[in-house]
Specification:
homotetramer; alpha+beta; seven-stranded antiparallel sheet; 7 strands; 40% helix
Chain lengths: 229, 229, 229, 229
């Protein structure tokens, strides 16, 4: 399967995940050797998506190099993230609870092992973008403010593969499309739980970092012991 | 397809949208050239709806001109809206979260880009209706209080194509039936998010107007660049 | 169809309504001319329910007169309600939001027209039952405390066809099984909306009684004008 | 059917219950006469689960005695519970509301008869585990802290067949796999109701112990009178 086939199939998998509403949301995958990434076309309903409608974009120039349709309007955001983060696929959704946290300008707190199995800490929220950043190159600047968020807080994009863009919505990523979708699904799942816990127990103690690390590294890295070898 | 066929099919699409509960809800579409609109009959279960049961009503007199059944009891509300607003279709539902905001007498706040992609600002709530307004011509007066709400606040019915009637439920509209249903669905979606954000972060800063406008005009008007040309 | 057939079919309709969880819940219908009511047997999964398993109970003695199985353990509650209220069918569920209001000892407020279309006022909660009432004839006493609630507050069981038993769950009723189930469904629907409105706007003004009455009587009584003649 | 067949079928039933998200969750059943229990392998998707993939573990040594795959990483927790509690099956899930209560470090309160029909009191939360307990033999220590919770509070594991592990998730158990799953389902159901009741009525009076006992013993023990003999 070539890149556009995988991108098409993965965008359809995203649509089936329940994370996207209407035409909100898109997924891209990168082929770093070829210097390109493949992304959903803008505003095309998932039901009508076929591999030939997928747009291939140059990592260097940001310009489409394959496909007749316009790429997702969020393409420049994906481009900035691929340039800054070492990931293989990026998912953008307006999934309900994660988007709501973005609107509430509130990080999704790492309050338990479900979260720590996937993310080694809170999911950060970007700062609000300025009038200048929104006024021109808005989508590229969205990517830049995400990267700034990780740099400023010294966060690892590998250990925390998701972000909330203030008053907008989440982006999640991973080594491949399946992992990026899984991260987006878990993000929504832990967002639901953190929201409810905050309402009923706003002063609940946070889990110890050693509990978070034990769970994170039970599933990630060289000493992982979850699953089959 | 004639007006009654489209109205029937669109009412069934509304029923499948998950926005209506039981027989609550109705949809109408207007043919301004012909001076009529077509609307669901009153209290007929969606499962039994056929084009011949759709009622056609005169925009001038408000009287049925085609169809043997009684039109929706909300027909006079639709009539007032068609007379005041330049729209092609109107949807009335008791969708859960939007109706709840109507009961809470609380506008649905424009707290993010999901909302701004469809509505250029908060969804307003009408004032409570008086005993006189409720006591006679109740449904026509419901339409009038909606129009008053937009006039008083100098809102554009095109830019904010939805309203909450106090202690009642939402109405949404659009250039055609599909867009009106889509607006009603997004209304419910953003209502869910705003409700949750208000609970967890009652003092969250609102998004800047330039962010709202960028998203609204990315999808509407002559400089829109979302989707395919 | 005889009484047991209708009771079986109606219990299955209740199971499909999404209001019952596991074996929680039961429905009965009365034949006042025959002096009996038919009710679900105790603890039988809905999937295994057949008309011959339905139990017919005497309105006078409260004893089973037809059927080999034990009737629902809530049978004495149904009996008390049939004796006191002029209704044709009774539904008991542990539907989530209504049961939660019963646990919260909080009436479901009539906050809008959706509620008023079915119930002419708040859904009351019984007082807590005493040790004596719980210690013997518990289920009959449950019915008695419901009747007491309506008598004490001078409520009409016809106009408010539902109640919350404190720390237990709702009962709803109606002229026939379909209406009783519909009332139970609307009860759950308005419970969800009232719960959410209370959280976001605890001080929201209540709707005027004339609005409630207009909606209630639009659908009930001799001046009703909703639906087809 | 042998133990691995039942364990496989029961894990699939658990997957269909809606309580597990992704590969979170596992179920084991014990054969005390044979001195073994059968448990889900680690990280295997439910869709790929077959009886030969189930791992059989010795109650005495805790070591696998049958099956080529690694057992669930939570196996030592199950082992501790089988050693301390007289139960036939154990279910671990990350079901949303119960897990959220674990993150909120808040017991699920016994606020009504739905809860009391299955659990004779609140569902306790363990204390947080120490760095030492998490650092080595983490999963066995999870079991030990559960047992400690029951011992310290003098709770009966038979009367309260579930627990919340702080910042982790619930475990539930029962005399057999079907009952353990049912307990896990009711746990989630009452968690949803208690969470909502706490938000809307934080000071609601708790039900009297005699009401709880009447319901609990209506379904359990020698004087039970619910269901068919």
């Amino acid at each position: 399967m070539n890149l556009r086939d995988i991108a098409c199939r993965s965008n359809l998998a995203l649509a089936e995940s329940g994370l996207v509403f209407g035409t909100f949301g898109n997924l891209s995958i990168v082929d770093r050797a070829a210097g390109v990434f493949a992304i959903k076309p803008s505003g095309v309903p998932y039901a009508e998506l076929t591999p030939d409608k997928i747009v291939v974009v140059s990592l260097e120039s940001g310009a489409p190099v394959e496909g007749a349709l316009r790429p997702s309007s969020d393409t420049p955001t994906h481009l900035e993230l691929y340039r800054a983060f070492d990931c293989g696929a990026i998912v953008h959704t307006h999934s309900e609870y994660a988007t709501m946290f973005a609107q509430a300008r509130t990080p999704i707190g790492c309050m338990g092992t479900t979260h720590a199995d996937y993310f080694r800490g809170d999911i950060p929220v970007t700062r609000a973008m300025t009038a200048l950043e929104v006024g021109a190159d808005y989508e590229a600047n969205t990517g830049k403010v995400i990267v700034e968020t990780f740099r400023t807080a010294a966060l690892s994009a590998e250990e925390v593969p998701a972000v909330l863009v203030a008053n907008h919505a989440p982006f999640a990523w991973g080594p491949d499309a399946a992992k990026a979708i899984e991260n987006a699904r878990i993000l929504e799942f832990v967002a639901r739980m953190d929201w409810r816990a905050r309402l009923v127990a706003p002063n609940a103690p946070r889990p110890d970092q050693f509990l978070i690390d034990t769970h994170y590294f039970r599933k990630h890295g060289t000493s992982a012991y979850y699953g089959q070898k």
